[in-house]
Structure formats: structure tokens, C-alpha cells
Specification:
heterodimer, A: 81 residues, alpha+beta, Mth169, Chain: A, 3-stranded antiparallel sheet, 2 helices, elongated, B: 232 residues, alpha/beta, Rossmann fold, 9-stranded mixed sheet, two-stranded antiparallel ribbon, 5 helices, 11 strands, 22% helix, globular
């Protein structure tokens, strides 16, 4: 069965995010009054798996083995058919 | 004695390291393309700087998952020397050869400049030719070089003497101003669990001849060579 897996990788809470700070600064310069800004990477992956649980497990293994760095990142997986 | 200098697509300091090893230090060194296997003919492996895989995903992340890195991890596990410089250090950290990681500079831009480093330990195969606390001058060139780790690992690194180099000023004072990239504790060179692995962001190969402005980096290679000659 084909599944669309969406993986979101973000810095752990409290980690310095210099790019997000620069983007927020630029938005503020344009007159937007932002109070916070964080960034994240999103990967949408199509894969074959017997069940949604298997698709999720595969996506989590992808995060553990390549997509996320456990020192600095948290990840979130959503599975859709 | 033979060194391997590993080349990935996007490595760009490989020939500088090779030049310093062969022409300045006078030892044999092979450039080894990452699709080749390492074998067991090398005393030391250098993972040079550059932009392997275009720094896609995270600097060093993709190169760290190539088969030759499994060979290099095996080489380190058998007691062989492994030195990672700049992108090589990012690859080594991503491979788990050292604890912690190198990520985006606190000011998110590429920094290329001369810096001062304080030698924090001489009790390693990479730093024995320096004096404890000596201040050396070596350049950096990176955008993702800010050392990060957890507080408990930092304490362990300090207790076990696995911090090799920290950013400092010309007098050796460790200050926020002398920390170009926001690294935790000004740390920019860390040793592996067995001290036969060193991952560092500064470029010793760019400071190994007086004609380029400093020869302070050469003693790092001299230390490695002396260690191999002693046959420890």
C-alpha cells in the first residue's frame, strides 16, 4: 500500500537558530511585529508499506539514521494514505 | 608510514593536506576516492575540508553515511589515527567518531579568518608537539562550525581531557570576543573516546609553512608522525 509520509525536522526547544533570528529580524524591518519565529525542514516521502504503522516506523528509522541529528533535532512524522 | 587523505565529491582541501604531508612533512600520503575501500595499509586517515555533497541536509551528514566511513570507523576502532578538518570534522561528528556536533555559526554566515587557539591537552597523538596552554595561530573557514553538545557530555569531555583546542585571544584568554562562531565553551577541537581521533574546525594544513603566515599547524602533523614512529 502506498503512503505519503510527512517528516518535520526542527531544532530542539531552546537551541539557538541563527537563521530564524535573521529572518525574524528582516520581517521586523518590514514592519511585521513578530514575537517569535522558528524554522523547520519538511520532507514528503512516498513509500510502500503493509500498514500505516509500518510506514511510520520506516519514516522514524529514516530520521534516526539520516534526516535528523539527535544532538540538536526533534522530528515529527505524519502518515497519510 | 602511510597516510590516507580521503576525497569526497566536493572536498577541496584534500590536495593541501596531501602537499603538507608529502612535501612539508616528508611522509607518504595517498589520495583515496570515497568509492574505494580503505583496506588496512594506512597508519592514519585524514578527512579534509570542503563541501561534500554540497552541504545538503547538514554539513557532513551525507558523506558520513558512505561505505568508506564505515572503513574509517573500523580503522579508528583498531587504534588507527583519524583526523577530521573542517568539513572532515563535520563528517566525523555526524559519524559518531566524536561526541557533539558542529552546526550553524551563531552569526549565520561563512567566516574565513585567522584565529588564535589554546592547546588544552598535549596528551594526545595530535598535540604532543605543542606546549600545554600554548597559543597557536591557525585559520578557520566555515559556516557550520559552532560546536554544540549536551551539558553532561560537556562535563565528561572536560573531565576526560578530550578538549584539544579552544578559541582564545592572542594572550590565551578565553573570551566571547575571541569565539568567532559561538561554539559552546569556545571549543573547536575534540578528541574521541580513545584519543586516536581528533575532529577540529580550524585548518592546520593552511598554517604549516611560514610562507603562508604561520607554521603552527605543522606541529599537529609532526605529532601524528612522531606517534606513529613510536609505534604505540
Amino acid at each position: 500500500m502506498k503512503f505519503e509520509v510527512q517528516i518535520t525536522i526542527a531544532l530542539k526547544e531552546g537551541m539557538l537558530d541563527p537563521e530564524a533570528m535573521a529572518i525574524q529580524h528582516a520581517l521586523n524591518n518590514l514592519g511585521f511585529a513578530t514575537e517569535g519565529l522558528t524554522s523547520a525542514s519538511v520532507y514528503r516521502i512516498t513509500l510502500d508499506a503493509p500498514t500505516p504503522e509500518d510506514a511510520r516506523a520506516t519514516a522514524m528509522e529514516m530520521c534516526e539514521r539520516l534526516l535528523a541529528n539527535p544532538v540538536i533535532h526533534d522530528y515529527h512524522v505524519e502518515v497519510a494514505q | 608510514m602511510r597516510f590516507a587523505v580521503v576525497q569526497f565529491g566536493g572536498s577541496n582541501c584534500d590536495r593541501d593536506v596531501h602537499h603538507v604531508l608529502e612535501s612539508v612533512c616528508g611522509v607518504d600520503a595517498d589520495l583515496v576516492w570515497y568509492k574505494e575501500r580503505l583496506g588496512n595499509r594506512y597508519d592514519a586517515v585524514v578527512i579534509p575540508g570542503g563541501f561534500s555533497y554540497g552541504d545538503y541536509l547538514r554539513a557532513g551528514a551525507i558523506a558520513a553515511r558512505t561505505p568508506i566511513m564505515a572503513d574509517i570507523i573500523g580503522h579508528a576502532g583498531a587504534g588507527g589515527l583519524v583526523l577530521g578538518i573542517c568539513n572532515g570534522a563535520q563528517i566525523g561528528a555526524e559519524s559518531g567518531l566524536v561526541e557533539g556536533t558542529f552546526t550553524m555559526n551563531s552569526t549565520p554566515k561563512f567566516i574565513c579568518e585567522w584565529v588564535y587557539l589554546r592547546v588544552e591537552t598535549t596528551d594526545s597523538p595530535f598535540t604532543s608537539a605543542y606546549r600545554q596552554g600554548e597559543v597557536i595561530r591557525i585559520p578557520i573557514a566555515h559556516k557550520e562550525g559552532r560546536f554544540v553538545t549536551t551539558p553532561d557530555i560537556l562535563v565528561r569531555l572536560e573531565q576526560e581531557g578530550r578538549i584539544a583546542f579552544i578559541f582564545c585571544d592572542e594572550q590565551g584568554a578565553v573570551t566571547a570576543e575571541s569565539n568567532p562562531n559561538g561554539s559552546l565553551g569556545n571549543i573547536t577541537g575534540i578528541l574521541g573516546k580513545e584519543n586516536n581521533v581528533l575532529m577540529m574546525m580550524p585548518h592546520p594544513e593552511r598554517a604549516s609553512e611560514d610562507i603562508v603566515g604561520s607554521a603552527d599547524g605543522k606541529r599537529l602533523f609532526d605529532s601524528m608522525i612522531a606517534y606513529i614512529e613510536r609505534g604505540e
